[in-house]
Amino acid sequence: MSETNPAAASEVVAPHRYTAAMANEIEARWQDFWEANATYAAPNPTGDLAADPALVARPKKFIMDMFPYPSGAGLHVGHPLGYIATDVYARYQRMSGHNVLHTLGFDAFGLPAEQYAVQTGTHPRVSTEANMKNMQVQLRRLGLGHDNRRSFATIDPDYYKWTQWIFLQIFNSWYDDEAKKARPISELVARFESGERAVPGGRSWNELTAAERADVLSGFRLAYASDAPVNWCPGLGTVLANEEVTADGRSERGNFPVFKAKLRQWNMRITAYADRLLDDLEQLDWPEAIKLQQRNWIGRSEGARVDFPIDGENITIFTTRQDTLFGATYMVLAPEHPLVEKFTPQEWPEGTHEVWTGGHATPAEAVAAYRAQAASKSDVERQAEAKDKTGVFTGSYATNPVSGEQVPVFIADYVLMGYGTGAIMAVPAHDTRDFAFARAFELPIRCVVEPTDDRGTDASTWDDAFVSYDAKIVNSSGADISLDGLGVAEAKARITEWLEREGIGEGTVNFRLRDWLFSRQRYWGEPFPIVYDEEGIAHPLPESMLPLELPEVEDYSPRTFDPDDANTVPETPLSRNEDWVNVTLDLGDGRGPRTYRRETNTMPNWAGSCWYELRYLDPHNSEKLVDPENERYWMGPREGMPHGGVDLYVGGQEHAVLHLLYARFWSKVLYDLGHVSSAEPFHKLYNQGMIQAFVYRDSRGIAVPAAEVEERDGAFYYQGEKVTKLLGKMGKSLKNAVTPDEICDEYGADTLRLYEMAMGPLDVSRPWDTRAVVGQFRLLQRLWRNVVDEASGDVTVVDAEPDEDTLRALHKAIDGVRQDLEGLRFNTAIAKVTELNNHLTKAGGPVSRSVAEPLVLLVAPLAPHIAEELWRKLGHTDSVVHQDFPVADPAYVVDETVTCVVQVKGKVKARLEVSPSISDVELEKAALGDDKVVAALDGAGIRKVIVRAPKLVNIVPA
Asked: Which of 248, 401, 577, 643 could form a disulfide with 680 if both were Cys (CB 3.0 to 4.6 A apart)?
């Protein structure tokens, strides 16, 4: 919806009035000035960006936004919210005496550009670079104070050379559990060679073939390839990380079905860092909600591993309730458990319950059918509390190690390979899901934790499970172990000690976190710096061969399949380029030139954003990942930041368990290996809210252009048809997107900046209303009129001293704006600026220079273009960007009097104007002597007087 634009309409009234045309001219001119004078250049201690030692001597602030992806649709007004906020904060910090690093690059690899290439034949680099150029123009127009010398894109070979280099550091490392850190894999090899460490399997290192040695090391490397269950999406032709699969088992992008399949893929051993990722959260200044998400995702739990013997082997389970082992009446394996086939006999054992077979003639048929069914469900679906539990008997029995009882082994989709060992002991009396499964499959339910209600211990009569961590153990005695009468904690300790003594289990810690799937069957991503020899052994490329650049290909798409056909395997675009894949190389290992085959998967789009904060520090360094002195200066540990990191990182909360967790992992590996001094990438995290917009839909439910909707008598119409109005996201597909270019054209960038910051608290979502933008434009017009004569263009300020009321208004504003900008409360900072500006407007007459200049400086972080222009008009020749931010005089901040409310029986009876420093005794005396209070008491005695000086007195009569 639109209206006549007052910013443009007012242009005919006065030749020097602040209008949209003037705003756009001022803004373009100052943007050119900033660029020409490198106004926002932040000097480094060393290297090609080192300059002005005095600036480097200042305290530093490293302020970052989350990496934007250069979309072809460009920006709508919701996108710059965080960018404007960090810009305001960065400008304030510069004016507060800091050397500020603030810049922005582009996270430019990824699926959208590849899909566009598939559709149009346009090389992904061409479309991506065009998108970046468009976004750069849009962002520049907003007046963002970025150090553009430090900008880059993840698709730059000079950048992804170091992404590949980091991958090789991770590949060539292992996690030393004794040292609790990553160490070079060469140290582990030396231990194996010397015999200091036993080689898994019992043979000596020298006895192993090259392939066998590679397999051993793969079990330790922090980056490794393995055959593992993955999320296979035939419709996209690629595998997906768990986080890229929706709750209903479909791909986040494209909404295709996702299946479980076993494929050879690259993984990152992030699980080795689970404890440190948890522990170090405590020292980070992050929203508690994000910390909680990471804690839950990592999912640390203490319990025990227990071996259940079966056919000469063991099924190992992890349980947090080892105290209930005597109540285990069956076992369940995840459908994809590697031992399922081994424990599936040819025929059903005699006496098998019909309900256990699923109606199949043989165990193999039953298991195969059920596995196919489970493969079509996501992990989230499988864990949901469904009314009906499904599963099938494998045909085998295991032995309960504490009771010696034979228990049937099932497969069921509510057990996941991604948690614990992919196998559980089922104690149906004390687990809700196990109880439902046991009822459905007519399995025994044995009480081993005494109920605290009146249900009794005969679990066959129960309606549901009894779950308690504060009850006594019963029915839990064996030949040489008894838990009866113990509490849960004591029983856990006793049974764990017994398991370890018997050699059939041990106390352990388990994590929900799984290793990070790091392969994608795509073209538009970083190539792996890995080649394979004729034996299939993976070899890292030497650093001298980096970057390994993407080759040109004719077809950018991975081979896709029928979205519903799970029985397919990936075929990548790179695999079709035989000249690139098959190469002869001398890897410098003493074996001379040999024939190798390149890795044809690419890295996921998360790779480039795992370390980009480090590239901002030293963007042109071709010799090192980052100069150590520069890294220590900008990100090293310091008081209040024991792990170092970025001072402020602003972005959406949707990346809580993806980018943020992955980046923390990479930082810790680099820290362990001595490449950086910061063990954490981001010390302070702030999640901005979302700018929403109204979506209008017709009777068919189809979105109609919001700008063409008319409101009549409280209803909404599009082309004469009534439409519904709902608040939702802003976007091109919803036909409600407003571009920043539109608002800049109509009002100027400073108005847009003020409006987005004034809409509400930064961390709260808020609805966009184009009609409300004019309010911030009028603020800037009033500011302009307080300094400039609209008719002549002359500056109107005077050198006379302001009156005391104005001084108080000024210094209160300075004090309040300072606190608000420091606390990212931009909406209230703007309110305080508005209040001061209105005070000056209402006072009438010319404004004192000693008030006008600090007012302009208060506005400078929020609306930098008009501040620069007014600062220049006030006679200054230097930029406002590096001026000192005003400091309040405390004498004028404190009110001369404050209003004290006096209550009698909880009702207000008087208001007293008192000194802010009045004591409790003085305030009580004044309140009790007030005529209105005396009348209200009417001679009654006083039981209690509650004084909260200087603002409240509450009198309780006898």
From this structure: 643
